[in-house]
Backbone:
């Protein structure tokens, strides 16, 4: 059984507790994002606003329509995988929850299975939500702690109804607000330095 992070839901506490969980320095939250729940209530989710490098060379993989491709340490990656890599460098394990193609991905090409107890947690949330969509993009864990991180491109992506429904279900399953993170990312041209280094 997964023990969710046992912290309170006040604004200052949520930001501070995420830092205590050894969130990578470049993803430490500095503000919050208001998420509307199906009940019309609003919850404040910790938010970070990093800047990544834009990839400016040809790519050979499917872009899922026209997803932005970023340069992470010389490799072309989607934002979800950049976030995952930053968590991994800080000692976390995790996956990109590719809801579009119903896969758990560790890279653009590789689909993997996740531990049964992690899968059980997701299935409980889906059952509570009554649907399988809306899961935050990155699911990461370290020992008994879990984090769900949602990648949002600054000025473009918006909160979807399915995400609000999923978040509401996750909260009802006992996951605390400090276990969620909105990553509202921007991108810089290749000759500019991105703020994505992790500790």
Residues:
């Amino acid at each position: 059984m997964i023990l969710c992070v046992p912290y309170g839901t006040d604004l200052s506490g949520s930001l501070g507790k995420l830092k205590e969980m050894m969130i990578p320095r470049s993803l430490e939250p500095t503000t919050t994002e208001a998420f509307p729940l199906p009940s019309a209530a609003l919850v404040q989710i910790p938010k970070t606003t990093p800047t990544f490098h834009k990839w400016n060379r040809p790519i050979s993989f499917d872009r899922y329509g026209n997803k932005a491709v970023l340069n992470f340490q010389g490799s072309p990656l989607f934002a979800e995988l950049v976030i995952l890599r930053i968590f991994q460098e800080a000692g976390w394990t995790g996956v990109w929850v590719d809801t579009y193609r119903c896969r758990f991905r560790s890279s653009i090409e590789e689909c993997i299975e996740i531990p049964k107890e992690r899968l059980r947690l997701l299935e409980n949330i889906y059952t509570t939500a009554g649907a399988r969509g809306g899961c935050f993009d990155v699911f990461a864990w370290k020992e008994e702690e879990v984090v769900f991180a949602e990648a949002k491109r600054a000025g473009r992506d918006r909160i979807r109804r399915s995400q609000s429904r999923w978040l509401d279900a996750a909260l009802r399953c006992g996951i605390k607000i400090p276990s969620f993170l909105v990553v509202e990312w921007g991108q810089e041209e290749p000759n500019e330095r991105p703020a994505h280094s992790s500790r």
Summary: Residues 1-11 have pLDDT under 50 and may be disordered. The longest strand covers residues 145-153. Residues 11-57+65-186 form one domain. The two ends are 29 Å apart (CA to CA).
